Amino acid sequence: MSAYLLEAPVFNLEAALEAARFGIHRLELCANFPEGGETPSAGMVRFLKNQIDIPVFVMIRPRGGDFYYSQKELMVMKRDIEILGEMGADGFVFGALDEKGYVDTESCESLIRTANGKPCTFHRAFDASADFYDSLEKIIDCGFQRILTSGGQNTTSEGLGFIMELMEKAGDRIIIMPGGGSKPSHVELFSESPYFKEIHASCKVRVPSANQYVNPNVNFSDDPESFTHHWGIDQQVVEEFLKLIEK
Predict the structure, then answer these.
(1) Mean pLDDT, the chain, as a whole number?
(2) 76-100 pLDDT per residue, tens
(3) Residue 221: which pLDDT band, with cuts at 50, 70 and 90?
(4) Which three-class secondary structure state does DSSP give residue 149?
(5) In this structure, which CATH number among 3.30.1130.10, 3.40.640.10, 3.20.20.380, 3.40.50.970 belongs to the domain 5-245?
(6) Is 164 helix (H, G, I), strand (E, B) or coil?
(7) Where are the alpha helices (DSSP H) in the chain?
């Protein structure tokens, strides 16, 4: 049994299947990589749960951008939790802030109730919040099981020191899961904390597409390689993580 858990965010079917095959312990299933993740389809969740036997946590995010949601958007999020839970989702990943950047406890508690006992992760909306210490306590009080964070910075490397501080402050009350540019070398650094339990890493790599025709006058994405490549999972990086995690 591994000392720590490795979670990978995946944005397409092939990456999800590869992640499970290469030994990832849990998936964070999302849509829309350019926006940092949005709610995936019910069909994707149902299909994956019939194909793989590792937990699939599902992103609940109705759009990109900020994390201050209207009441109608929150209603959509609740309905997505209900539907995707029926499709077999093992847990949910979401976060809501108010217009001032503080944790919207009322909305988060309502979403957690809708999850009906399935574990919930507060995602990197934490890193966008106005007061990290206030957010930590509110997220714990809401009943989340973990916080995904890069330490209030763009990457785990930049926020490493503060992530360690958050682990100590949170103690055993909630899991602080580093994520956002995580590297295998971070495992040894975080393992210095007795509260380190899980790490979130994309392990992503560009995979050439089988598509053989590209219209040079058309592009549906900001990514110029979107017609020739897609994001897959780098088996070598996964193996580097697992070697350190299982040591």
Answers:
(1) 96
(2) 999 999 999 999 999 999 999 999 9
(3) confident
(4) strand
(5) 3.20.20.380
(6) helix
(7) 13-22, 42-51, 71-86, 105-114, 132-142, 156-170, 184-190, 235-245
Scanning the structure block, which residue is given the tokens 């749960």? Answer: 49
Which structure tokens are listed for 78? 């609740």
Q: Are 14 and 27 in contact (CB under 8 A)?
A: no
Report the alpha-carbon distance of residue 220 to residue 199 in Å, rounded. 33
| Amino acid identity for residue 241 in this structure | F
Give the DSSP per-residue string, 174-234. SEEEEBSS--HHHHHHHTTSTT--EEE---EEEEE-S-----TT--SSS-TTTTTEEEEE-
Domain range list for the chain = 5-245
Cα dist from 154 to 146, 149, 160, 181, 182, whole Å: 19, 10, 11, 8, 11
CB-side exposure of 243: number of CA atoms within 13 Å? 9
